[in-house]
Queue: 3 jobs
Job 1
Amino acid sequence: MTNSSAPDAYCVMGHPVEHSRSPWIHARFAELTGERIAYGRRLVPLDGFAAALADFAAAGGRGCNVTVPFKHDAARLATHASDRVRRAGAANTLSFRADGTLHADNTDGLGLVADIVRNAGVAIAGRDVLLVGAGGAAAGVLAPLLEQGPRRLVVVNRTQARADALVQAHADLALLQKTELKTQWIRRHEADFDVIINATASSLAGDAVPVPAEVLRPGALAYDMMYGPAAQGFMDWARAHGAVPRDGLGMLVEQAAEAFAIWRGVRPPAAQVLQELRAQL
C-alpha cells in the first residue's frame, strides 16, 4: 500500500533568504536517506519573525532553519533550548514538537568545525584563532570552536560591548579548555593568527573586510561564513595577502546535516552533497 500522506514540511526563514541553498541541500539529503520531507524558503518581514513561526506551525510545519537576522529571536521564542543555544543566545534550528512546544538548537558551530577540521584538514587545537563579529553567527560558533581547544581565541567586533558580553558568556568554557579567550582592538604588532573566521554580514553587504591584512599569518586559513559571490571579496583579499581562502559552503552543508539528524534521526552523507554542490557552483 502506498503512503499518500503529504511529506513533512520544513523551511528556512530569513531576510534575505532567496540566495539560500538550503532547500536543495535538504531535498538531496531526503533523496539519499529515503526521508519524505518538503523544504522551502520563507522571506520574513524584519518585524514579523514570531508571526511567521506561528503561521508555519499552524500550517503543520515540523521544523525550520533560521538565518540572518532572526537567530537571537529564535532563541528567545523557544520553549526548550540546548546548551549551545543558552550559551550563545542564538538558534538556527527549530523543531515543533507534538505537544505544541518549540525546541531550539544551534548547529552552526558544529558545521563550521566539521568543515574546517574534517573537510579542510586544518586543526584548531593549539592554534591562534580570530573570530570577527559578535552577532548571532559568531555567538553560535564560539562554544564549538572553544571545545576544539585553541591556544588563543580573540573576538573582535565593531561594538566592543557586544564582543565583551560574548566572551563573558563563554569564559568558563575557555577556562576548562585552558584557552586564552579575549576581545581586543587589532593592533598590528599583536595581530597574528592561524585561523581567521569572518562571522560578520560585511560580505553579504559588499562591505570592506573589517580587519587589517596583518591578522593573517602566511598560509593562515581565512574563512568566510558566507559562500558564493558574497564571499568573493573576502576570499580575494585573503589570497592576495598569502592566506588560504575558504568560503562557508561546507559549513552550510555540515550544519544542515546536523539539523537534518535532529529532525529525522538519520545522518545524511554531507561530504557527498558538498561535493555535488561545489560542482554545481
Job 2
Amino acid sequence: MAQVSVVVPCFNVEDKIERCINSIKEQTYKDFLCYFIDDGSTDGTASLIKKLINNDQRFVYRYKSNGGQASARNLGLELCDTKYITFVDSDDYLHQDYLFQLINSFDDGVDLTACFFDRVYENRISKNEFNEKDLLLSKYPAVWGKMIKTSIIKKNHIQFPEGLWYEDLCFFATLTSYISEVNIVKKSLYYYIQNENSTMYTYSDKIYDIYKIFDILKKDPNIQQDTLEYLEIYHILIGTIYRASFKTDFTFSNIKCILEYVENRYPKWYKNHNIKTQLSGIYRIYLWFLQKHCIRLIFIALKFGNRFLSL
C-alpha cells in the first residue's frame, strides 16, 4: 500500500500541467498515489493528463463539475487513505527528491514536514526560507510544499472552505492548531510558478474574503487568541492593505476601514508579542505608523512604492 497521496487540483491547465506531471513521475520516492482532480476543465486538460499518466497505476484521474480549487482539494482529501498527504498546484513542479526528503523527515511525534521553496519568475528565481515558528504562525500558509499526517486532517474534520479566496490560510491555520511538532527540510524542493492570474497578483474585491476566513477561524476554540490576533495583523494589516493598494480605486479610506476592522476585534493589537519577535524592522516601522493612524503617509508610500515591496 502506498504511504503518501499527492493531490493535484486542475482547471484548464493544458498549457502548464505537463511539467508538473513529469516532475511527479520522476520522483526518487516511488511509493505514492497521485490524484489529479479535474475541476470541470473545458480545454484539453483531461486528454493530456490521461495521455501522460498512461497506464501507470500510481496515477488517478478524477473529473468533477466546476466548484473551485477548494472543492477539488476536498475531493482529494476524501479519496486518500494513505498515511501522509501532500498537495501540488498544477502549474508548479517538484525537485526529484521532494517526496523522499519530506517523508524521511518524519520522526516520532512529528505531524508535518515542510521544505523551502523557490518562487520562479520569468527572468529570476527568489528563494524562500523559514523556521518552525514562521510555519506554525502561517507566514507561508500555502498547503503545497508540505507533507501532513492524514489522520490529523481526518480525525479533526479539517476541510478547505469552498467559494472563498485564502482557503489555504483557513485550512493551514486550523491544521497547525492540532500540530505537535514539525520538521523542516532546509532545501528548496518545491518550485512555485509566479503568474499574473494567481490570487497574489489579482486585485478584486475578493481580497476581502479574508474577513470571512477570519470569522471562520475565530469560531475555532482550538486556535489561541494570541495566535489569531497575530495572523490578522500579518495577513490583514500587512497583506490585505498591500493587495488593496494595487486597485485603481484605492484611497486612504480603504486603509482606514481595514484598520478599523482589526481594531474593533483587537483594540490593543499593537501589543502582540509576535510583532517584535517575528516581523522584520520595516514591517514593525510600518505597523508603528499604522497604530499612530498616519494613514495618509502610508497611502502615499504604498501608492508610489508598492511595486518595489515584497511580501
Job 3
Amino acid sequence: MRVIRVLSAAFLMLGLAAAPAAADSSPSPSQDTSAAPTRAGTSFRTATEFEQGQRATASGSTGDYLYWSFPADTGQRPTVTAKVKLPDTHAPQTWQIDVYDGLRRRQACQYGAQTRTAAADAASVELACVLRTVRAWSEPWANDPLPGTYYVRLTVTGVAASDLGLPVDSEVRVDSKDIGGSAAVDGSLAEPLVPGIATRSGDEEESSAVLAGLEPEDGWASGWWSDRWVWTALGGVLAALAGVAGYTLTRGSGRPSGVPPAA
C-alpha cells in the first residue's frame, strides 16, 4: 500500500507539472487592437511594427510593396494571415505574401495559401503562411527561423496594366502557437536578430539606440530553459520510484521465523 501511495503522489506531481506545459501549447491570446497601426512601410527599413495578436491595416495602390514587422521568440510557430480588399472592378490579380527573418532571409511556409489569384471582380483575396517553429539556435549555414524581428511583405505579382494604381485596402495579422520543449535545442543566440543590434555596446546611451521598438511581452527567451527539463526530471523520479517498487514486490518476506540461519 505504501508503494501505491508513493506512485499516486508521483503521478499527481506529473499532472501538476504537465498543466503549464499544456498551457504553453495553446495559441497566444489576442492583444488590444486599439493601438494597431493603420499604415505600412514601403521597404524593409520602413516596415511598420505591430505586435502579435494585433490586426494591422493599410491603404495603398495595386502594385505597391507593403511591409510590416513583428517580433517572434523561441518556441513560437507564427501564422501570418493577410486579406486584401480589391476595387469594385478589376481584372484577375495574383497576390502573394512573403515572410523574412531578421537577416532578411525569406522563410518558407510549412503550409497555407501563400499565393492566390482573385477572379475578375472578386471582392477580396485572403492569404496565409504558417512558418516553421522559431529555434533558439542554428548552424550558420542553415536557414532555420531564429528569434528576432520578422518582416511581412504583401504585393501583387500578376496584374493587368490597367489595374496598376487602383486603390486597395489590406490587413495583416500574426498569431503564434507555443510549441514548447519538443522544439528545444542545445544552444541560444547571444542577441535576438533585430534591426540595429549591431549598434549595441557597453555604453548605456548607445545600447538604447535599437531600431526595433517591439519585443515579446515577457522579454526575449534565454534559450536554455524549456518544459523539456521538467519532463526529464519527472521521468528520472518515476524511474527511481519504479525501481523501488519493483524491488519491494520481488524481494519476498525474508527468512521464516522458525528457520535458523545457515551455518
